Amino acid sequence: MTDPEILRYTRETGDFSRMLESIPYATFIGLACERFGDDLIFRLPSKETNLGNPILPAIHGGVIGGFMEMAANIYLMMSQDSLRMPRIVDFSLDYLRAGLNRETFAECRLTRQGNRVANVMVMAWQKSRQEPIAMARAHFLLED
Amino acid sequence: MDDKTRRDRVSRFIHTLNQARELGLSVTDAGEGHLTLCLPYSDRIIGNPDTGVIHGGAITTLMDTASGSVILCALEEFELCPTLDLRVDYMRPAEPGKPVYARAEAYRITRNIIFTRCEAYQDGGDTVANCVATFMRIGRDASPKPYRDLITGGAE
């Protein structure tokens, strides 16, 4: 998914800008990431082109999915020692509230990592972490 | 409702979704309870810069849009139905440079819930991903009449 040199740089500095600039889809939806100690918080700024339902208006459910999927992927990549790239196998997403046209956040948890497969949970929220807008679960294949 | 009406309604509907317009989604086929949308290839949605393979998120949006819009092909009246959940299984990476199609089907409709399934594939027929989703029916009147008229062309 990304250059080993960029991956090394990101791990050392906690600066995700180079990595995210190298992935067009991250720029397309506006995904950003910041490191706080060992924790990663993913951000999706409010963006007109990300909207779906024009009446509320609300962020397109697919964009929320893409945001959470990419968050899980980056999170998993950062938690590995090796440079192997995780490949997504499946993604299961529950929408809990409408994602309004405002900044959205996400954080991930590695539920279980085996030798070949990892299970990652993702939670997304807007106003408060206590009121998630979506929860997701993804399986990744870990290959060299 | 005939297939042309279905196709027109879905075209107008996806045209009101900014992200669907941004991705360039279009209707390629519509019938009773089924629908096919097309996602053109674009450098802007690449997820893997080494291979040029598009990101799964763009495919998720394609399949979410197809699954949500197939409802327009299954109900006589236009109702906006929020997605409850979505499950995507990725079979293989989408081949770069080629469009991805999503064929969705509403296979069960109840008073409260609509169940859909959807397959994303490319020319040649190889499946890229499969998706099942559920949508909640919140009623016709949850959408303002001017918006419903915009989608149906004023013919309800």
From TrEMBL, chain A:
SUPFAM superfamilies: Thioesterase/thiol ester dehydrase-isomerase. It holds the Pfam family 4HBT. Coiled coil: none annotated. Residues 59-131 form the Thioesterase domain. GO terms for molecular function: thiolester hydrolase activity. This is Thioesterase. It comes from Marinobacter lutaoensis.
From TrEMBL, chain B:
The keyword Hydrolase applies. GO terms for molecular function: 1,4-dihydroxy-2-naphthoyl-CoA thioesterase activity. Keywords: Hydrolase. Gene3D superfamilies: Hotdog Thioesterase. Residues 52-128 form the Thioesterase domain. CDD domains: PaaI_thioesterase. InterPro entries: HotDog_dom_sf, PAAI_dom, Thioestr_dom. It comes from the Bacteria. GO terms for cellular component: cytosol. NCBIfam families: unchar_dom_1. PANTHER family: 1,4-DIHYDROXY-2-NAPHTHOYL-COA THIOESTERASE 1, BLR7284 PROTEIN. This is Thioesterase.
